[in-house]
Amino acid sequence: MNEIFNLKRFLQLLRKTIFEKPIQMFGLSFLVFALSLIIYTCFRSISNYQSANIISFFIGLVLGGFFLAAAVMGNFSNTANGISFLTLPVSAFEKWLTAVIIICVLYLPLYLLFFRIMDLTMIQIYHHGLDPNKADYKELYDKARILEYTGLEAKIFFIFFFNVTGAMLAGSLYFNKISVIKVALICVAVFFGFYSLNYLIAGIFFDSLEAAFPFSGVSIELANQKGRIDLPPQASGIVLIMFQYIFPALLYVLAFVKLREKEF
Amino acid sequence: MIIINKLSFGYHAKKLLYKNLDLTLSKGKIYGILGKNGAGKSTLLKNMSGLLFPSSGSITVNGFIPQKREPSFLENIYFIPEEVEVSPLTVIGYLNLFAPFYPEFNRNLFYAYLRDLEIKDHGKLSDLSLGQQKKFIIAFALACNTKLLVLDEPTNGLDIPSKSWFRKLIASVLSEERIIIISTHQVKDLETLIDHVIVVDNGELILNNSMAEISKKLCFKTIHKMDERNPVLYSEESLNGYTVVTENTNDEDTKVNLEHLFNTITQQPVLVKAIFKH
After folding, report:
1. pLDDT tens digits, residue range A126-137?
2. What gap in Å lies between CA B270 and CA B248, rounded to an integer?
3. First to last CA, chain A
4. What global pTM score does this model have?
5. Which end of chain B is more exposed for a tag (fewer CB within 10 A), N or C?
6. Would you call A87 and B71 a contact, using CB atoms and an 8 Å cutoff?
7. Is residue A215 within 8 Å of A243, Cβ to Cβ?
8. ipTM of the predicted assembly exceeds 0.85
9. Which residues in B lie closer than 8 A to residue A21 (C-beta atoms)?
């Protein structure tokens, strides 16, 4: 018997993980989709399409992924579930891979598909509602555009998605009780910690500092003129690679290592 | 066979619960691990099941190292914790999702156990009472036909008829290839079931003997009057006089009372150890 990976065993585990708690798994996904739709609709009404699709995309993708990771790996809040999970006759690799597949291969494309359909439908409705004979038709038409998945905003959100889901997978194994809250607090603390530290350091070098974004650049204001100084492309590239590949990979690998060594 | 060799384990590196514990458990027996709350019974079971890892020493279970948690080891062990919780599935749903992981699972036996334990086969399992959920898990675990069955406080939460059925079922599933380990502090519930007693206290192995050996070394009886000429290891006042435990010096054949045995051991550990040594 292959003790690390067996396709039949893995598929059984995948099926069990998805269908054991259908309300948790499908209900959570449905809730995230519904929340995205509500946020999109609300922000479209009170703000504009750009804010609507950016905010709803962030909420759906990042928060959805975060809670799904917690649902898939968070078996240790009670003794019965923890023991049942660890003594289930499958390898640690298969348990870890199931979580990765559910988050990255099933949820991510499904959410992207849902969001694209929602975004396109909303924008189609808006475009159809415009009067082509009006003078500002072109201007109003161009106000609503779909969120490109290859654009900068989407790219940043994908980085958030992989880092946050990786952190939640690892966090679920480090914290048995209320892991969602603990990991969320750590993520927020790390984010604001970096932001504050970066702001303090930038403040030492720039007198008229307006804003400072960690690992990106600073905005300064001199004689009523605003300017931005970005990191040099080489440094920026390294930072991007760190956040895009290195950190998520480390977090996902950490989750696997911790799962193998998990005592309960 | 389970071989525990110089096992040391502690939840904190500086404070070890078990130190250099040696223990061998053979196939075809029902072992009862007795001990007070917090004595380390569940910890020992979890070490055997790969849920906790030894600080030093080794454990092998049928040739496997539990710590590795390999699928071929896990498909031959079923651990029933003290508190159980089943998923919101129907009986069929649960079977379809969980049974395929256990190659020796027997569906017919499973339904027979459900009938014996009077578990209703309709609706969601999570809607059952905690006692019913526990009985369901026991039925499932027995039907898995694993070579090692570990039960941590199995009778907690069971009603009186269920305890009786539980004893019958456990006795019926024992085979030459199987090891059943039951940890409990409710010794009365399992008195007729266990054929080997292990008593742990503060991480120390105080007793590790078969019921036959215990019966040979100790005497459990009721006397009307305490006699100072016959020293007792343990005594308890009862309606008929005194129930006592004494050393069996006259080869008397008495029935082992596990509760009294346990009390004797915890009150007179040194004396009991000395009796069983020779």
Report:
1. 999 999 888 888
2. 17
3. 26
4. 0.91
5. C
6. no
7. yes
8. yes
9. 87-88
